[in-house]
Amino acid sequence: MALWLVKRTDDVGYDEYDGLVVRARDEAEVRSIVHDDDTTGIKTYSAYAGSFRRREYTVEELQADGESGVILDSFNAG
Questions:
Q1: Model pTM?
Q2: Minimal CA–CA distance to 40: which of 53, 52, 26?
């Protein structure tokens, strides 16, 4: 398993998710989780589906090494 950073790259409206961190085996599983369309029995999160399905976003595997600092700071209140 790995940790993945998922960030929207399009315009984000109020009350939408614009980023999250997911634990998954690979990028395909990440996309399945955030789209809420998995058929393998993995717990999905339908709350994220509206913010990520049919939207532009990036998926990046996180590495433990690197500079100290915040990985995701997401504030998009409505």
A1: 0.76
A2: 26
